[in-house]
Design goal:
With about 350 residues, this protein is of the alpha/beta class. The chain has two domains: about 120 residues, 3-Layer(aba) Sandwich (Rossmann fold), CATH 3.40.50.150; about 180 residues, Hnrnp arginine n-methyltransferase1 (Distorted Sandwich), CATH 2.70.160. The chain has nine helices and 15 strands. Strands 6, 7, 8, 10, 11 and 12 form a six-stranded antiparallel β-sheet that branches.
Length: about 350
C-alpha cells in the first residue's frame, strides 16, 4: 500500500506515518498473499484477460510485494509502474528482479500524490485498496487521485471497479457477555467505564453465519471509475427484517468487490456466508440488545466519515429504531474504527 517517503524522526511521526510503517513488515503481506480469495480473484481478473493487458501500460497503486504487478507483467503488459511508500518497496524491487521482470516493472517509492510518473497516461490502474469495513485505512482516495491524473480518458480501466458495503444483524450473546458485559463486575468491582469504550470499538472478526438473524441490505455502492472522494463519507438508511424470534445483539458489515470490465466478471465477497478473508467482518454491538420476533423490522441510518485527526480512521454512527411485541428501542451509537 502507499506509504510515507519522508525520513521523519519518531517524535515527528504522524498517525499516517505509522500506518505506512506498518506495511514495511513482511507479516502483513504474508497474511494478504495467503488470503487466496483476495489474491486469486486478482490473478484471475488479470491473467484470464490477457487481451486487456497485452502491450498496455499499467499502474499498480500501493504495490506492496508487487504481486499484482507481477500478474500484469505475466499477462503481457508492456510497462508496469509499481508505486509503494513503505519499506517493503526494497523487497519488491528484489522480487521483481529475481523473477526476471525488471525490464517491464519499474518500482517507484513515494506517495502517489507526491511522485510524477514518466508517462502522461496509463491504460489500466490496479490496486488492492480495500480495508476493514471497506473504507478503514482504505487507499481509495489515492486510487481516485491516480485515476484523475493518469488514467487514459475514454479507454482506461480500473481493476477492481465496483464495491458494495452490506449490513445485517446477528445474535451473539455469548461473545457480548464475554467481552462487553464482563466489565460490569470484575472480581466484584464495577469497571463499567471500560464497557463503554469496548462498545465504541467495532470488532473485526469472523462471524458465524449461523448467528445471522436478518436479511442483508446494501448501504454503500461505489463505482471506482466515476466516484469521488466526497462519496467516501456517506449516510444511508436501512431496514432489516428478522427471520426468527431471537435477540439482536449487533449489526454486522461486510463488502463485495467486483471486476466487471473483464471478459467474464469476477466477484468476491467478505460475507459471513462466504469463505473467510483477512478482512473478516466488522461487528457493531448495541448498547442494549433487542428482543425480536419473526417478521419485525429494525430501521435506522448508518453514517461514516473520516476522522478529523487521521483521515484513514473512521467515525461511524448507527441510529436505530425498533418497535416490536416484546418492547421498543431507540438508540444512537458512535463507533470509532481506529
Amino acid at each position: 500500500m502507499a506509504s510515507s517517503s519522508s525520513a521523519s524522526s519518531s517524535s515527528e511521526k504522524t498517525s499516517a506515518d505509522y500506518y505506512f510503517d506498518s506495511y514495511s513488515h513482511f507479516g502483513i503481506h504474508e497474511e494478504m498473499l495467503k488470503d487466496d480469495v483476495r489474491t486469486k480473484s486478482y490473478m484471475r481478473a488479470i491473467e484470464q484477460n490477457k487481451h486487456l493487458f497485452a502491450g498496455k501500460t499499467v499502474l499498480d497503486v500501493g504495490c506492496g510485494t508487487g504481486i499484482l504487478s507481477l500478474f500484469a507483467a505475466r499477462a503481457g503488459a508492456a510497462r508496469v509502474f509499481a508505486v509503494e511508500c513503505s519499506g517493503i518497496v526494497e523487497q519488491c524491487r528484489q522480487i521483481v528482479a529475481d523473477n526476471g521482470y525488471s525490464h517491464i516493472i519499474e518500482v517507484i517509492r513515494g506517495k502517489m500524490e507526491e511522485i510524477t510518473l514518466p508517462v502522461e497516461h496509463v491504460d489500466i490502474i490496479i490496486s488492492e485498496w480495500m480495508g476493514y469495513f471497506l473504507l478503514y485505512e482504505s487507499m481509495l482516495d489515492t486510487v481516485l487521485y491516480a485515476r484523475d491524473k493518469y488514467l487514459r480518458p475514454g479507454t482506461g480501466l480500473c481493476l477492481p471497479d465496483k464495491a458494495v458495503l452490506y449490513l445485517c444483524a446477528i445474535e451473539d450473546g455469548d461473545y457480548r457477555s464475554e467481552k462487553i458485559d464482563f466489565w460490569q463486575s470484575v472480581y466484584g468491582f464495577n469497571m463499567g467505564c471500560i464497557k463503554d469504550i469496548a462498545l465504541a470499538e467495532p470488532l473485526v472478526d469472523v462471524v458465524d453465519c449461523r448467528s445471522i438473524i436478518t436479511n442483508h441490505v446494501p448501504v454503500l455502492e461505489l463505482d471506482v471509475m466515476t466516484c469521488t472522494k466526497a462519496d467516501l463519507a456517506f449516510t444511508a438508511e436501512f431496514a432489516l427484517t428478522f427471520a426468527k424470534n431471537d435477540f439482536c445483539h449487533a449489526f454486522v458489515a461486510y463488502f463485495e468487490c467486483a471486476f466487471t470490465q473483464v471478459h467474464k466478471p469476477i466477484v468476491f465477497s467478505t460475507s459471513p456466508q462466504s469463505k473467510p478473508t483477512h478482512w473478516k467482518q466488522t461487528v457493531f454491538y448495541l448498547q442494549t440488545p433487542l428482543t425480536v420476533c419473526q417478521g419485525e423490522e429494525v430501521r435506522g441510518t448508518i453514517s461514516c466519515t473520516p476522522n478529523d485527526r487521521n483521515q484513514r480512521d473512521l467515525d461511524i454512527t448507527i441510529v436505530h429504531g425498533f418497535s416490536g411485541k416484546a418492547g421498543s428501542s431507540q438508540g444512537s451509537q458512535l463507533y470509532k474504527l481506529r
